[in-house]
Model the fold of this input.
Amino acid sequence: MRRRRFVAGAIGTVSGIALGPPPAQADLATPRTQEWQAVPAPGSTPAAQLRRIAAAGPQLAWAVGEEGRVGASQGRGLAMLWNGSAWTKTDLSHLNHTRLTDVAGVCAASAWSVAQPAGTGSPLLSWDGATWREATFPGLGESDVRLNAVAVGPDRQVWISGSRGGAARLLHGEGQEWQWLDPLPVESANLYRVVLRSPGEVWVSGDQSNGGGWSGLVARWDGTWTVLPPVAGLRLGIADVHSAGPDDVWAVGTEAGIGGPPGRPGNPVLGHWDGTSWTREEVGFTVGSLSGIAGDAQGRATWISGWNYQDQSRSTYLHRDESAWTVVRGPAEAAPAPYLNDVTSVPGTTEFWSVGMTSPTPAPPTEAYTERLEA
Done:
């Protein structure tokens, strides 16, 4: 079952909350400052956005998304490469994909991406050091196969979340041999993210049907599936998950709420699993979304990328110090109304990247957008 995805840019009412900025919201918009800086990502054709980013180190990162969208028509895949000093656009003219949905990599010879096809089936792409090429895998070209997200470990083992045969599942391999693992034991589930905590521990997030809508889904694979209780909400999906241990799991996403027109903003969701139950945490703003989580060198959740509908003048993050999450804003006047889709750490450093687009609506003149934190 495919859920309808909600994107920002329309005006309505969310669970009884008026979407105009209330007077009290100005009091929330005085958080401490972190030195996030906008970094140009030139060369894309509006409308464009970067959906995911992966970093192998200070001198190498990949970012993927889409460009050339006009109205409801689909665009084409977009890929960027960071060489330590600048982003450059990677040529994808030899491929026929409407968007690249995720990317993961650990070195110049081991990076992977998944894409949305122009026709049927989902392609898997591998990076050969200079460009992206299609890779073969069991199920390639099948109309019911969808590859949604990808993760790669230091051992170069690749984990891909998606679906085949009507069931959500993982595809696992190392580039030559691939195997579809046992189906996720949840009916009518969609997976949006896969995260590797250790070589034998993989986490996925998404949503699952609850009869009248959908609830947030978080599960772990370590040879068998362990599905956590649903993250309860009104049409709630989990965009990303971060595990620091069996009793310290964080999940972020968006709750669409009741009714309203397609495309209207939802409510940001931050949940914490303590080994027994989920707790919904305060975010610091009430209308918008949370899209990604990045951990620090010790594996603790530390940065969350988001979008605050009620104050779009700068990008919005949550940062965790000790035991509290605090709203942090990005650079001023870097983009008209920056919207973040993802955040990631840079291995071996205390630096972070985030990616998204220059406004919350993927229509011209929106362009690809990145920010960097050099701590």
In short: Helices lie at 25-28. The two ends are 42 Å apart (CA to CA).
